[in-house]
């Protein structure tokens, strides 16, 4: 097969590994810098041009679209879909996963366990917003944050009010969430491919920190997940419409709670910790499930 990897940088670990794994299985792998691709959307025959030539003959496309290029990246992916190329994750599902409010609404509608969560922009009654999520301690998050930045633990209602006021001043959308203390500063990353969790790892925050992000000094280790956690991760990916997803779960007293579902999950940590050939499993998934004109959403909805 001829497989495109949409990625800004061929040297990134995940991009390199996907190229290696595809080549090892006899495929032609082409890395396409998402922002450099351009297209004619008004023609009868949808095309993408790259380095002065039309892209042709692709069987599948693996989107590795960073959060900062979601909008343009999804447009390029949608154009591949219109050309009938098989997308590992569909553009609609990726766009959905990048909107935290929309994602959590979808997951809750389908009965997936979530921390009690409120959303707000300029709440006219901050005390009521705090009560709505059962009071302090609570976690406040800015919506566009990543790598744990913009995630604050407020031990008291007074602290929470000040932080909410500060974010209101910055005109930020925020999420106010029940603090899952019993998770003990740890979360579980489940790597889902198709209808399986193919690898899982635990991330533990450094002492004195509640955020387990590796960028915040957290450490990763192997973990055996429960059947309920496995089911939750698979269902969460399915609700989002993602074939490949990193589902982050908190262990609470009342079962697994989904924190977020990532549509371009990093592969370095999980391959290193578990020793699994995640890239190879993704290529095999494409071999088994790929084919022309299979995009379900056709870029709509
Ligand atoms: P980001 O998208 O920046 O990674 P997250 O929502 O994943 O933000 O939060 C960062 C980390 O903070 C999580 O990995 C988790 O360890 C911790 N955390 C987030 N929300 C909660 C919560 N409601 N209860 C307990 N810990 C949380
Ligand atoms: Mg996170």
Write the layout of secondary structure elements.
Elements: E1 2-6, H1 13-24, E2 28-32, E3 38-40, E4 47-50, E5 53-54, E6 60-63, H2 70-82, E7 86-87, H3 91-98, H4 100-109, E8 117-120, H5 126-132, E9 138-142, E10 151-154, H6 157-169, E11 174-178, E12 186-193, E13 196-204, E14 219-222, H7 227-240, E15 244-252, E16 255-262, H8 268-274, H9 278-289
Parallel strand pairs: 1-2, 1-6, 6-7
Antiparallel strand pairs: 3-4, 4-5, 8-11, 9-10, 9-11, 12-13, 12-15, 13-14, 15-16
The chain binds adenosine-5'-diphosphate and magnesium ion.
InterPro entries: ATP-grasp (IPR011761), ATP-grasp_RimK-type (IPR013651), ATP_grasp_subdomain_1 (IPR013815), RimK (IPR023533), Rimk_N (IPR041107), Rp_bS6_RimK/Lys_biosynth_LsyX (IPR004666)
Binding site for Mg(2+) 2: 260, 262
GO molecular function: ligase activity
In short:
By secondary structure, this protein is α+β, with helices and mostly antiparallel strands. It has helices spanning 13-24, 70-82, 91-98, 100-109, 126-132, 157-169, 227-240, 268-274, 278-289; strands spanning 2-6, 28-32, 38-40, 47-50, 53-54, 60-63, 86-87, 117-120, 138-142, 151-154, 174-178, 186-193, 196-204, 219-222, 244-252, 255-262. The site of adenosine-5'-diphosphate has 23 residues, from strand 9, strand 11, strand 15 and strand 16.
């Amino acid at each position: 097969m001829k497989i495109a990897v949409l990625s800004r940088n061929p040297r990134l670990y995940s991009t390199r590994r996907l190229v290696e794994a595809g080549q090892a299985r006899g495929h032609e792998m082409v890395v396409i810098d998402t922002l450099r691709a351009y297209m004619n959307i008004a023609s009868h025959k949808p095309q993408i041009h790259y380095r002065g030539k039309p892209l042709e003959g692709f069987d599948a496309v693996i989107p590795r679209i960073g959060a900062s290029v979601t909008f343009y990246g999804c447009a390029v992916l949608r154009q591949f879909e219109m050309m009938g190329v098989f997308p590992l994750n569909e553009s609609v599902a990726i766009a959905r996963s990048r909107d935290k409010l929309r994602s959590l609404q979808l997951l809750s509608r389908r009965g997936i366990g979530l921390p009690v969560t409120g959303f707000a922009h300029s709440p006219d009654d901050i005390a009521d917003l705090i009560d709505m999520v059962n009071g302090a301690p609570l976690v406040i998050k800015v919506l566009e944050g990543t790598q744990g930045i913009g995630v604050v633990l407020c031990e008291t209602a007074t602290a929470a009010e000040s932080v909410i006021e500060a974010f209101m001043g910055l005109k930020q959308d925020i999420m106010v969430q029940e603090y899952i203390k019993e998770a003990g500063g740890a979360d579980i990353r489940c790597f889902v491919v198709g209808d399986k969790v193919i690898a899982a790892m635990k991330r533990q925050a450094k002492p004195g920190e509640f955020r387990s992000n590796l960028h915040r000094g957290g450490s990763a280790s192997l973990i055996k997940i429960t059947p309920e956690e496995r089911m939750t991760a698979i269902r969460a990916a399915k609700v989002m419409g993602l074939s490949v997803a990193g589902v982050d779960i908190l262990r609470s007293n009342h079962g697994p709670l989904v924190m977020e579902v990532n549509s371009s999950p990093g592969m370095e940590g999980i391959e290193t910790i578990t020793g699994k050939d995640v890239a190879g499993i993704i290529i095999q998934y494409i071999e088994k499930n790929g084919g022309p004109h299979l995009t379900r959403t056709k870029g709509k909805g």
